[in-house]
Amino acid sequence: MAHPMRTPAEETLIARFAAEKAALPGTATLITPLRETAFRAFEEVGLPHRRVEDWRYTDLRANLKSIAPAAGPANLDAIRTAKPAVEGDGARRLVVANGTFLADLSDLADLEAGLSIRSLAEDLANGTTSVAHAIGIDPLPAGNTAVELNTAFMTDGVVIEVAEGVVIERPLEIVHLVASATPVSTAVRNFVFVGAGARATVIETVESLDAVAHQSNIVTTLSVGDDAALDHIRLQLEPDTAVSFATVTARIGARATLNTFNAALGAGLARAQVFATFTGREAKGGFRGVTLLSGRRHADTTLVVNHDAEACESRELYKAVVDDSAKSVFQGRIEVPSHAQKTDARMMTASLLLSEDAEAAAKPELEIFADDVQCGHGATCGEIDDDLMFYLLSRGIPEAEAESMLILAFLGEAIDEIDNEAVHDALIHRVEDWLKARQG
Amino acid sequence: MLEIRDLHAKIGDREILKGLSLTVKPGEVHAIMGPNGAGKSTLSYILAGKEDYDITSGDILLNGKSILELSPNERSVAGLFLAFQYPIEIPGVATMTFLKAALNAHRKAKGEGELSTPDFMKVVKETAAKLNITSDMLKRPVNVGFSGGEKKRAEVMQMALLQPRICILDETDSGLDIDALKVVSEGVNALRSPERSFVVITHYQRLLDHIVPDIVHVLSAGRIVKTGGPELALELEQNGYAAYVDAA
């Protein structure tokens, strides 16, 4: 298919793939063709633009002006001395720096029985069955540019496997760091397999040590076995100059529970995606997130929850606070096929606009083909309530403090769903810092 | 203490206060009674500094200084307190966080340091206990899930904590049963002192059986049309406001 005209970013991607593919990890029989297929799918249509419905509000053709070169090895001293984004959670830290899993800098001592942590690059090179299975056979969102580019360029990541029935109390924290004085691109793919009846908490923090225009693309695939439980929390804390794509794909087995939370606190252009499928009956999913935006930043949250099994329950709650001339986007779709009777799904999104030029777009959708279901969605967009403000002011609380209290209260409804106390508190502190910075 | 001078105010094009004057001296309790639509709640909001109104002429003085240019929080720390007719529910803001922020704002204005958490807890718990406010209520977000009576008790608790010089009670009796009315009134009466004044805005006389005023005013069509002693309230209870509505 003829493409109208390649943008500089597209041209760079094409040149980069041609130059880099031979050195990317993966078996020639399985992984290399996957990369080729994914890249060709991208190449055929190019970067998505506003006439592509899924990217209507986040036009990459217009906004992704250039592509940074692939990241080289990170300065290990810089990584070693980086201040942790979350303190006091006692988590087992798994460091992925400049797109490479650094086992030496990760906390792999005394792994619990039934817990396996490996480098994805090794799995790719070895053609390890589980990963190949997940990449090649599990349904990924078709035609999704961020995922296709990730598949084409992924260098490494963390593979976490929790064996059947094993409960891992200690949270696992994937620390994504980029250390480079000039802008670089990274493509990281993580896998979390939680076996039947097992339990785990996985935290991801995404940061870069330099305030330059890095481009990160992370895809984390969560596979939650029957009767298993997984909490997944991602804190996206990149500098305002960064471009961030962060995708979660999830399969949730029968009677399993998955709670996933995304905090979009950084990046100038961000897209957080969740593609989740209920594969077994009576499972529960919580999909939540908060977005804080100022300046001219743009953050997109795109969510597709497929209730592909009977009697599953999902709760979706996304909140955005938008200041200055920033823009937030929420696209959420709940799919209920005809066999998914007794589905119970409730999706809510709310935006709080703090300035005249702030913008929020919300597109909640329900696609329901079953007749015995309870599904609902709601979207609100508004300013800080004058009556609430007046009440706080009338008690002597200064305006800036009153406003911060109300913003925190607005976000709290979502943030308070995070069970892990250390992560919850770390996020609240970040929000408080943001509020302080906003008041100058 | 509080002096309102020939106050004219409108909301949009509608003039609601049409030359209201009132002087409240330290230690006095004034009742303002009046029919629906007389401008009672407007008066309370204007005193507290709500933005929705245009003050077209006149002035409001607190301790001899005009407060018209002060924001609601500046008026609060200057000693003015409004007990709301309908206290607002604020989901997500913990009552204790709210009380602490308010109390510390007042302390800061007086040049005092912030209260330590134990001291703060102590003063809140003591004040709450006197008003039958349970620790469960204190754990909830501000006014959320409170009954009408609980909300009014919470207002009086805030008043007791902030120790204002002038308290405006806007229809504090509305939505209260007899028992709750007693608790609230006792809370208010406990705060009466020679330095503190009250303006009690009410539609009915029954609140004034519990909070006995020194002076009673009738507000009708945006002005004080009659001023008298407590007996005026009884007269209104018997004869209604008809005479004053016509006069205004």
The tally of domains of chain A stands at 2
Quaternary structure of the protein: heterodimer
Radius of gyration of chain A: 21 Å
Q: Would you tell me the overall average pLDDT of chain B?
A: 93
Q: Can you summarize the main beta sheet of chain A?
A: 10 strands, mixed
> Which chains have the largest interface?
A-B, 22 and 30 residues
The counted number of beta strands of chain A is 19
Unreliable residue runs of chain A: none
Distance between the termini of chain A: 51 Å
Q: What is the C-alpha radius of gyration of chain B, as a whole number of Å?
A: 18 Å
Compressed to H and E, one letter per element, the order of chain B equals: EEEHEEHEEHHHEHEHEHEEHH
- Termini of chain B, distance in Å? 27 Å
The chain-level structural class of chain B is: alpha/beta
Give a written overview of the molecule:
- The complex is a heterodimer of chains A (440) and B (248).
- Chain A has 440 residues and is of the alpha/beta class.
- Chain A folds into 2 domains: 74-383, no CATH class; 384-440, no CATH class.
- Helix content of chain A is 24%, strand content 36%.
- Chain A has helices at residues 8-20, 31-45, 60-63, 76-80, 120-126, 129-136, 145-153, 386-393, 399-415, 421-438, and strands at 92-97, 100-101, 115-119, 158-162, 172-178, 185-194, 199-208, 215-224, 229-236, 243-252, 257-264, 269-278, 284-293, 298-306, 313-322, 327-336, 344-353, 359-368, 374-382.
- In chain A, a hairpin with a 2-residue loop joins strand 1 (92-97) and strand 2.
- In chain A, helix 8 crosses helix 9 (399-415).
- Chain A starts with 7 loop residues before the first helix and ends with a helix.
- Chain B has a domain at 87-164.
- Chain B has a 6-stranded mixed beta sheet, with helices on both faces. A 4-stranded antiparallel beta sheet of chain B has the order 2-1-4-5, covered by helices on one side.
- Chain B is globular and about 55 Å long.
- Chain B has 10 helices and 12 strands.
- The interface between A and B is medium-sized, with 22 and 30 residues.
